[in-house]
Amino acid sequence: MSVSPAWSPNGKQIIFTNDKEDGATGNFEIFRIELETAGSEKHLTFRRRADSQPVFSPDGARIAFVSETDGNSEIYLMNSDGAGLLRVTRNEAEDATPQFSKDGKKIIFSSNHSGKFALYEIFIGDVNQ
Predict the structure, then answer these.
(1) Interval 39-82: pLDDT, tens
(2) What does the H/E/C string look like for 64-110?
(3) Which of 43, 53, 112, 126 has the least CB density, counted as fewest CB within 10 Å?
(4) Are 103 and 58 in contact (CB under 8 A)?
(5) Do 56 and 65 form a contact (C-beta atoms < 8 A)?
(6) CATH number of 2-123
(7) Long-range pairs for 87-93 at CB < 8 Å and ≥24 separation?
(8) Is the pLDDT at 24 greater than 70, yes or no?
C-alpha cells in the first residue's frame, strides 16, 4: 500500500511511503520515483519499524520524514538520494508531519511535548548534504 506522496519542487520526482517489502508487518519505507525515467523506483530507507510522511526541502536536495526506528516517532532528515541520515528530534513525545520553511532552514512539525499536540519549529540551518 502506497501512502503520503509528495512532489519534488521541480515536479520530476515523487516520494512516498510503501510497505511492499513485507506488507504483512506494516514496515513502511520511503521510495522515490523519477517520473521521466521508466523503472526508476528507488528504495531510500531500509530501517526497522516504519518510516513515513516524507517531504522534500524547497530546493529538492533533502527529505524530512518521521521514523519509529527507536520505538518513538522522531523527525529525521536525509539527502534526496537516501544518504546522509540525520536525526533531528530526540524526545519522548510523538513528533509528526514535518514541513520545511520556504528557505529550507527550518522544519515545523507537530508534537505532543506538553500532552497536547502543538506546532514546533526547529532550526536546521544549512546542514551539509
Answers:
(1) 788 999 988 789 999 999 999 999 999 999 988 999 999 999 99
(2) EEEECCCCCCEEEEEECCCCCCEECCCCCCCEEEEEECCCCCEEEEE
(3) 126
(4) yes
(5) no
(6) 2.120.10.30
(7) 88/64, 88/122, 88/124, 89/122
(8) no
